[in-house]
Specification:
The chain has 563 residues and is of the alpha/beta class. The chain folds into two domains: 27-482, Alkaline Phosphatase, subunit A (3-Layer(aba) Sandwich); 484-563, Arylsulfatase, C-terminal domain (2-Layer Sandwich). It is built from 13 helices and 19 strands. Strands 1, 2, 3, 4, 5, 6, 7, 8, 11, 12 and 13 form an eleven-stranded mixed beta sheet that branches. Strands 16-17-18-19 form a four-stranded antiparallel beta sheet, with helices on one face. Strands 9-10 form a two-stranded antiparallel ribbon. β16 and β17 form a beta hairpin. Residues 15-20 have low confidence and may be disordered.
Length: 563
């Protein structure tokens, strides 16, 4: 151990002793995966190898009822601001629906975690997916890019999805770049997941301030396209040959053994029969690549942990891992046959070193190969672009109903692993925390632990009040002081969680359903007819929230969205 590192550790321990074991303000690393189901990491029941996240969970706390918003953009808006996405102007995606809650661009009436923590002398760093502004192309306004919203350093993508080998809207600080033109980062083989984690590691090692840091690591893995390094995909060859039904059953058994779910909760019906799957070999490859994507993300967690230990920051760093929505059942690239993204598939057309990748689905790889989709194309390489489909998404969300987009448990349930050696008592290591939490709570937690002040006004602009509460008591097994219900709205899908009761509906015109989550978290026993008064009271509260929080008026139902 280097002398400098040893001195840092001794000094940190001395501070803890003098403060009566109360840790000083922690560094905070917030890592989020993209389109990953609740059961996709080992410590939540998965067979995918995630030893680094599992190790953090074993010496930290896992939340069993943490929630996201069910979709990429609203989740990021909520996470960053501590408000409901509609209040931040991003109730849907990155298009302006000409409604107050659906502007598609992060509002000036909210502050980001970075902006708030920066005011408390935190250094603020980000690597990965931004996705809270429509302005992603050269020459577009940058008022809502990360550097303009509180981050000292940024490396990542402004847009939401793209190739893992040539991501669109790749940006360093405020400049769009290509992987080949980036003078600061030239790995032997570019892979976006590794690039994100490499930059997190770099931020840690280069942090030279006595003040703490905040790092937001926003991964695109395992969001489509199914892209992985072949060495990682080979690890999972044959691992899923029994299909998604067997995978669901095995995960469910492990979840019960871990105490994550109750044996009395009946598992939801399967989405599709594996026996009837028409393209088994092709579908198996999709899941093998998906598993490799999660595996690669976890590899980076290991490097980040090592960087924290090497720099003396490990003990007093709060590491939080979450997911932005449930597994994705979208049908990306899954039509029969072969579809080419370029009209001239036989002719090589390499891209220039400095040429920017501006397409979410590239027409060509950087070396000129046409990008292909369809069931006759084995996925994984830079010249392919597929999603893994509803059968595997159903297994990813074990044991819950529905998927990304919807606000039943499969769409909004997220793992949350919290690890903080200096701040989580040893008798809590490996424990499960069953109190509900939500993305709105992350800002409140950061403020609680950092001592930062949340502003009421910036100039003449009133700032939306915090909507969440600190999760820090839950780290210690204490009561999370939540006084209000938790609410959801996305694409007309609606929900409300009040204690053990959950009100939920599919679509703008779908009927309300009512569930006792303590008894039936898989949402199979609808109590709407047995509890009509409770349902009406909760529905009235939801409607009031929807208007107050700008979820309504909404662009759904009979009214067509304006493009």
């Amino acid at each position: 151990m280097k002398k400098t590192t040893l001195y840092i550790l001794i000094f940190s321990n001395l501070i803890l002793f003098l403060q009566g074991s109360k840790p000083p303000r922690p560094n905070i690393i917030l890592m989020m995966s993209d389109d990953m189901g609740w059961s996709d990491i080992g410590c939540y029941g998965s067979e995918i190898e995630t030893p680094n996240l599992d190790s953090l969970a074993a010496k930290g706390v896992r939340f069993t009822q943490f929630y996201n918003t069910g979709r990429c953009c609203p989740t990021r808006a909520t996470l960053l601001t501590g408000t409901y996405a509609h209040q931040a102007g991003i109730g849907w995606m990155m298009s302006n629906q000409n409604l107050p809650g659906y502007k598609g661009d992060l509002g000036k009436n909210v502050r980001t975690i970075a902006e708030v923590l920066k005011s408390a002398d935190y250094s603020t760093y980000m690597a990965g997916k931004w996705h809270v502004t429509p302005h992603v192309r050269p020459g577009s306004p940058k008022h809502n890019w990360p550097r303009q919203r509180g981050f000292d350093r940024f490396y990542g993508t402004i847009h939401g999805a793209g190739s893992f080998f040539d991501p669109n809207s790749l940006t360093r600080e405020n400049t769009l770049i290509s992987p080949l033109s980036d003078k600061e980062y030239q790995p032997k083989e570019f892979y976006y997941t590794h690039a994100i984690n490499d930059h997190v590691e770099r931020y840690i090692r280069e942090h030279n301030s006595e003040d703490p840091f905040f790092i937001y690591a926003a991964h695109t893995a395992p969001h489509w396209p199914m892209h992985a390094l072949e060495k990682d995909a080979k690890k999972y060859k044959g691992a899923y040959d029994k299909g998604w039904d067997a995978m669901r059953e095995a995960r469910h058994k492990r979840q019960i053994e871990m105490g994550l779910v109750k044996k009395s909760w009946e598992m939801t019906p399967r989405a599709r029969s594996w026996e009837d799957a028409p393209d088994k070999e092709w579908d198996l490859r999709n899941m093998e690549v998906y598993a490799a994507m999660v595996d690669a993300l976890d590899q980076g967690v290991g490097r980040i942990v090592k960087a924290l230990k090497d720099s003396g920051h490990f003990e007093n760093t709060l590491f939080i891992f979450i997911a932005d929505n449930g597994g994705c059942a979208e049908n990306m690239g899954r039509r029969k046959g072969i579809q080419y993204r370029d009209k001239d598939p036989e002719k090589l057309k390499p891209m220039g070193k400095d040429e920017l990748q501006l397409d979410m689905i590239p027409r060509r790889t950087r070396d000129g190969r046409v990008v292909k989709q369809g069931t006759d194309v084995m996925t994984g390489g830079a010249d392919t672009y597929h999603g893994y489909g509803i059968g595997w998404a159903n297994a990813s969300n074990t044991p819950f109903r529905e998927y990304k987009h919807w606000v039943h448990e499969g769409g909004i349930s997220s793992p949350l692993v919290a690890h903080w050696p200096a701040g989580i008592d040893k008798d809590r290591h490996g424990k499960l925390e069953h109190q509900p939490g939500h993305l709105i709570d992350i800002m409140a937690t950061a403020i609680d632990l950092s001592g930062a002040k949340y502003p009421q006004k910036i100039g003449s602009t009133k700032i939306v009040p915090l909507q969440g509460v600190s999760l820090a008591p839950g780290f210690q097994g204490e009561n999370i002081k939540r006084e209000k219900p938790i609410f959801w709205e996305h694409e007309g899908n609606r929900a409300m969680r009040d204690g053990k009761w959950k009100l939920v509906a599919k679509g703008a015109n779908g009927p309300w359903e009512l569930y006792d989550i303590d008894a039936d978290r898989t949402e199979l026993n609808n109590l709407a007819e047995k509890e009509p008064n409770r349902l009406k009271n909760m529905a009235d509260i939801w409607e009031e929230w929807a208007v107050d929080s700008l979820a309504k008026p909404w662009p759904w139902g009979k009214k067509k969205r304006k493009k």
